[in-house]
Structures are given as C-alpha cells and as structure tokens.
Design a protein that fits this description.
With 248 residues, the chain is α/β, with parallel strands linked by helices. The chain has a single domain, classed as Rossmann fold (3-Layer(aba) Sandwich). 44% of the residues lie in helices and 19% in strands. The protein has a seven-stranded mixed beta sheet with strand order 3-2-1-4-5-7-6, sandwiched between helices. Helix 5 links the parallel strand 2 and strand 3. Helix 6 crosses helix 9. The longest helix has 23 residues. It is globular and about 45 Å long. Bound molecules: S-adenosylmethionine. The site of S-adenosylmethionine has 20 residues, from helix 1 and helix 4.
C-alpha cells in the first residue's frame, strides 16, 4: 500500500539550497565531492560510532550468516564492511547509493554488488532481502514514508530493518555541547585535515540536519505505518539511535 502523505525528515535549510526541490541535487553533489575524504572525517567524529558500534548493532538486530542484506546509502561501505564480516559471503551484501563518487570509492575498497539509485524508489524486485541496513542517511531522504514503504516492499516476510542515526539530545546541556562540537569543531577540523571546503560545508550540514530532524517518535510511527511490526528504537547516551522493525 502506498503512503498517503509525504513526510520530510526536516524542513528546507535555506543556507544550503533555496527550497526542498533542490535538496536531492545538493546532497548528491556534496557526497560526490567529499567521497574521498569521508572515512578520514568519520574517524574524527569517533563518538563510538565506529566499526565496532556498527557491527554490534547489526548482530543485535539479528544479522546472521546466510542472510541477504541490502545496505542502503552505503557511502564508503562502513556498515557494509561489518555486515560482510558477519555474513561471511561477498555476494550476500548489496550496496545502494545515489552518489557516483561514493560508489566509486566503495568499489575501490570492497568487492560486492552495487546499485546506483534512490532509496525512495528502490530499483529492486519485491521481497529480495532478509535484512536492510542504513547508516546515517535518514536525514537526507525526500520522504520518510515513501522510503520506509520501499524498505518494506523489498524485504522478505520476517525480514529486519535497522537504521542507525544520531539524534539531537533531549537534555539542553548535552545538546549545547554537541552543537558546539558537531556544528563548529568538526566542520573546522574537517577542513583543516582534508583541505576541502565542501567537507566543511557537509559537516556543518550534518549538524543542521540533526538539529532540525523530526523527533524519534515520528520516525518510529512512520516505520510502523509502513507495515513493520516490532517498530522501536534503542538509545545510547541520549544520542545514538538504532531504529528497527520487522516485516510481519
Ligand atoms: C553520511 S553517508 C553514510 C555512509 C555509511 N552508511 C555510513 O554508515 O557511514 C550518507 C550516504 O547517503 C547517500 N544518500 C543520500 N541520500 C540518498 C538517497 N535519497 N538515496 C540513496 N542514497 C542516498 C549519500 O550519497 C551518502 O553516501
């Protein structure tokens, strides 16, 4: 069943693009231009959202050898690499991303099937996968409802959805600290360590999308509305969120 209303993850951010119709092109351009620096800056972010965190989230959500995985918004493959370590089969994990730059980068680093496409309109047949993972890309989609319906469509019955995200902390002190760190320190360090201005813009945008993102309850409700059972979310440090759901 198609969703009735679109659900944007955040309102337009006019510092970066004039209106929401320009957002997909902006996002794609930014990731294309920064793909070669992404892993380095991701190390800087640390905050525990590294390889061990991704692998632990995958196994906690039930990923096992033999499962067919679609890693949506694969980027440079930081989640896919951990999924491959669990499944043990290079053909078991398929990566999807809209950015040709990111796909070129992951192709250099990993051997696995790759698809260029939008997660809001997955170019994938129904009920193909046992597990869908998505790391830190929820804030970039045009429509959460359409995206979650697509995830539901391509999962087999019993299949699992896992979405990793960073969320604005509820506590004002933590929020102010994170705003300073992610909104100011990381963008500056990103530029200093890579010499790339687009990386600075991307990291500023990273915080602005976190700050303006719809609340976790809205995301969980949208996962449930797309047809998932057991829709929920694990929270750590009032910051890291692992949303999940199961296709009934
Ligand atoms: C922050 S990176 C995340 C990479 C990786 N998943 C990780 O855990 O680090 C976000 C990725 O989402 C991709 N992306 C953004 N919007 C997308 C969309 N609508 N459809 C598919 N990929 C998208 C970008 O090209 C980028 O590679």
């Amino acid at each position: 069943m198609k969703p009735e209303q679109p659900l944007e993850p955040h309102p337009a951010l006019p510092d970066y693009y004039p209106d929401l119709t320009q957002r997909p092109a902006f996002v794609r351009r930014m990731f294309d231009r920064t793909a070669g620096y992404y892993d380095r800056v991701n190390q800087l972010l640390s905050f525990g959202s590294g390889s061990w965190y991704r692998r632990r989230a995958l196994t906690r959500a039930g990923l096992q050898p033999g499962m067919k995985v679609l890693d949506v918004a694969i980027g440079t493959g930081l989640v896919a690499r951990q999924a491959l370590a669990v499944t043990g089969d290079p053909q078991s994990v398929t990566g999807l991303d809209i950015s040709a730059g990111m796909l070129a980068e992951v192709r250099r680093l990993l051997k696995l099937p790759l698809i260029q496409g939008l997660m809001e309109q997955l170019p994938v047949a129904d009920e193909r996968f046992d597990f869908i993972s998505m790391g830190y890309a929820l804030r970039h989609v045009a429509d959460l409802n359409a995206t979650f319906h697509e995830f539901h469509r391509v999962l087999r019955p019993g299949g699992v959805l896992l979405i990793l995200e960073i969320t604005r902390p509820a506590q004002p002190f933590k929020r102010a600290l994170l705003k300073f760190y992610l909104g100011k320190v990381i963008p500056l360090l990103s530029r200093l360590t890579t010499g790339n201005r687009d990386m600075q813009t991307l990291m500023r945008y990273y915080w602005d999308t976190i700050e303006n993102c719809v609340p976790p309850e809205t995301i969980i409700a949208a996962i449930r509305d797309a047809g998932f059972t057991e829709a929920g979310c694990d929270v750590e440090f009032d910051l890291f969120r692992a949303y999940s759901g199961r296709k009934g």
